[in-house]
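Collaboration report, partner site 2.

Our partner group contributed sequences for two proteins of shared interest, and the home lab folded both. The records are reproduced in the order in which they were received, starting with the first partner submission.
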Amino acid sequence: MTLGSGLRVAVDIGGTFTDTVLMDSGGSILSTSKTPTTPANPTLGALEGVDLVLKDAGRGWGDLSRFIHGTTLATNALIERRGARVATITSAGFRDILEIGYERRYSQYDINLTKPDLLVPRSRAFTIGGRVMATGEEKAPLDEASVPGLVQALTDSRAEAVAICLLHAYANPTHEQHLRALLQAQMPKISISISSDVSPEAREFDRLCTTIANAYIQPLMSSYLEDFEVRFMDKGVACPILMMTAGGGMTTLETAASLPIRLVESGPAGGAILAARIAAQAHAEKVLSFDMGGTTAKLCLIDDYHAQSARRFEIARAERFIKGSGMPVRIPVLEMIEIGAGGGSIASVDGLGRLQVGPESAGSEPGPAAFGKGGSAPTVTDADVLQGLIEIESFAEGRLAIDKCAAARAIDRDIANQIGLSADEAAAGLSEIVDENMAAAGRMHAVESGKDLGARTMIAFGGNGPLHATRVARRAGVGRILIPKDPGVGSAVGFLHAPVSFEIVRSRYSTLDDLDIVATNGFLNGLIEEAEEVVRAGALDSDVKITKSAFMRYRGQGHEIEIPLPEGDLTADNIADLQAAFEAEYSAQFSRVVPGMTVEILNWFVRVATLDVRSPAPEGRPKTTLARPDRKTTILCEVANERRTADVYDRSGLAPGAQLSGPALIVEPQTTTFVSADFTAEVDILGNILLLRTGEQQ
């Protein structure tokens, strides 16, 4: 990918910290920073981070040639319900799509079941006449005469945004587009999202939910992105600002403002990209990506150097681990599981005397008790401080003072005294629970995907990932861990390696036997042109790669299997190949094929992305040497369950080939790698820290 000759900067705004990475045109990281997130205006924390890395590198704002940004603002707005007041407009007779949903309960026998909050009550659900058929043919024209009544109803409902989802708009969007124009002419200040732009796929409930989610966060995100751009341009930034998307690519601010739903989970996507890249360099074909920050932990399965992807996920589940209890969103996304387990996760004792950790977080304000910023609740970070696993002097590059006494008081008061434990026992118990929560989430995610964690390498990063990696890996049955360089800002590093890309999934039904080759090629080429227009806006002079696939199933089935399409236009000769590819994949997933059944195609996928040009990774294994500790400290060893002396190493002083044994701490500016007593560590030729559980083979 052609990125110019200047500097590149990436900013990842998380729930607790804002990570910033400055990289030169050759791919070398010049400077990194981790600054507290500023919830009242996240842009202020981002400005501070970029200012710090530029000053550290002795460069100016005008030297930047590429700026990539990822944020949790869209995700948090949906979870915390801080979006716009949304109304819906659906086809006449389909007012109750949200009420009907999938016509099933996600927990059939739970008499106290909490239904997912789908953001729009029936009182703000409106309809309009007109009908488009599944073929795209107009059966009845749009009822323009009812538009004035709709305008009045929207005004009376005090709607700030509108989600339009008309029947079969994926096949023919003209009714939605015309209705949007009519409403915009009479209500110029209202934000309007149409399903044919947001999620042009069959399945009305999912399509409507996705459009609602987009409309819900669009005013907030548009305002935020406009302010973000203005503030950075005022500083002298002259290059385009690109946004990270959930699908693992970058897009323009204009596209992000119109389709902000694609920004949901964009930060974690950067981490998955980094893990996939490290996996390829280290020849680790089966990987578990583990990203633990201040607010959440994210786990992603990576096979053959590609992160697992999906077209659907859920937002704000009523029951954390139960599918169907959240709001479905259908967009291309890197598939991962995210739980409320981070350094800021708050611990408490419930009414039955049980120790609970998360999902509530202290965030950056007030933060853990140890931060000394007014927080009083005990958190995971407080437990790590009390166990001696965090060096107080070097934490957060020394810019954040750590108050160990405050951490001890919080744990003693709210945990130890409540259940009759010592402060050490309470801190250890807190860590045990949060580590088991993360390991259990990883095991569940693997089982749901039909995968085995035991044979995988964990790649751990994030502010707290390296600190908890060995403890989580032990519980998950993983014996091999890689800690990349600059792991504390791993997602931001991943941003800098992401392609400029855009994905489109659109429904166009056909059976494989009756596939109109000419019409299908025209349809796919139209999707390619549409996606390429978005990509070219962010990468004018770059070569691109086009990926296509079809979502196929046996007639009558409810779910599809993604089958790659050949490069170039389809020909009649490809039909037999597609049939064979579908049957091979179906057999791999279900152990058999169904002879004589008609195969149908419901959706088509196109991705246009700039090429990823990678320098060859060095091969071989460096000469091994025994590392000498820089100092020693006392920690609470979770293996021996007692206080023990641990060696402390500065990571900057560990050359490739350096070996050491646990218990030990490997300290660097934004995080610490904890080498448990049952693990050894070695720096590989790439500069990664390789952690091996005792008895594991390299």
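Second partner submission, folded after the first:
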Amino acid sequence: MKDKLIVPDYLFEVSWEVCNKVGGIYAVLSTKAATLKASLGDNLVFIGPDIWHEQPSPFFIEGATPNLTKWAKSANAEGLKVRVGRWDIPGQPLVVLVDFRPFYAVKNAVYAQMWEWYGVDSMTAYGDYDEGCTFAYASALVVESLYKHNCPQRSKVVAHFNEWTTGMGVLYLKRQLPSVATVFTTHATCVGRSICGNNKPLYDYLTGYHGDQMADELNMRSKHSVEKRAAQQADCFTTVSEITAAECNQLLERMPVVTPNGFESGFVPSGVAFSRVRRESRAAFSRVVECLTGAVPAEDALFIGTAGRCEWKNKGLDVFLDSLNRLRNNTPNREIVAFIMVPGWVDEARSDVKARYNSSVSFETPVSDPVFTHAVHNYFEDVILKRIHELGFRNEKDDKVKVIYIPCYLNGDDGLLNRTYYNMLAGLDLTVYPSYYEPWGYTPMESCAFGVPTVTTSLSGFGMWCKSIGRGKDISEGVVVIGRNDSNYESVVSDICKVIYDYASQSVVDAKPARQEAKKIAARAAWKNFIKYYQIAFDEALSNTAQRIGG
């Protein structure tokens, strides 16, 4: 590292997940914000999509600084439709929400310009391409306007764009506003994710894959095209782990700076508050089990969980269920209940389960099909529910291993539990995230932060980082990192089955040290320890910009 890094005066960070809780990038940005704001103050501004329009957003607080409010009035008068305020997360950073819909009218002209300038191929675009690229263009106009109105001359300004959905923003600024340093972060490449999603082996054959060729084969040409051009044109290109860096280098043809993801301890209650949350969440889990199965779990039942997007292979949901199925053949004396908290095509809480849950009555008989809590629109096609049925899980009273599928986002308003994911996480004893494709892995990191020992794999960024600090060999260390590759599925299932069995065989008291070790690992991954990697990225971007403009 250089003795003295160049520090930005202003940082504008753009993402589709600003004030828009969709996936892991929301966790990255919302936990990072307080640490960034500590050094930048209100010169840190996040920019996200105004998907709420005239409706109130649960993540947005109206009211900004006088300077930003004044800018918003002039920007709206000039044709940008923006709202300014603060993001309701720790640190409460300033935020601009931009309505990108008016720019659909000019998208073809923008695409033509991007082809002319950089060779971005939008001809085969489909799905969310127009939405992402229109938002990216609108966001770049916001940065351009903020720069001209609110940044003094010769200010060091960084515009940080996240994921392919913002790639055209990088390209616009590179051409139209070269004095602004651009950082582009790929959290997972379009082609890499698609290779895995199509059940092709990624790791054994990575060096044989050519990004452009695979994009054509997988019908990903337009998304790959904008992502690759943004990665190559940005003043600094970053990604979140060494494993994804190799993927980026091969498929996007540029080696990125690695900026590992951290976590903010302020999201975790402490002391008496944590004990209360854990107690209440365990009671909620127990009540759900009783309402579904007619049996109250034993007080020392081992509650296991997994969560994330419904990516069957990538998130290792197949491995998780197969491990639980194998566990049924050799169960410890302790009862095990596994909760799969993965959003599906959810309708609403099952009326029969909800009526039971909200009553004060105890139940001794099960509901029909007592393996899921919320109705799904695609009952016969839902991949998780289908596999639970295929494996014969019935959650009968005497079953030592039960599986409960909670197919919704736990935002506190699901109609049954009405508790957030973080609250429910506190009530678990063990988590398992056996990912095949996981650029970082926020779920196991969050689990550690909440003192819940976790199982992950060597194909996750977090798992690789744990191994780099000498952790992950045994659950007593708070984390187990299972070695995974393209050809050892069965051994991964067996290894996870053994970890669960061994942990369940311990007493509650004996398992306590592992909870403390998990917290220690999370403390080492705090943003205060990882923000230095972003400072290196900002320095590289500003240095390259200075060379480009002769500053």
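Feedback sent to the partner group on the second submission included the following. The first helix runs from residue 24 to 40. The chain has a mean pLDDT of 95.
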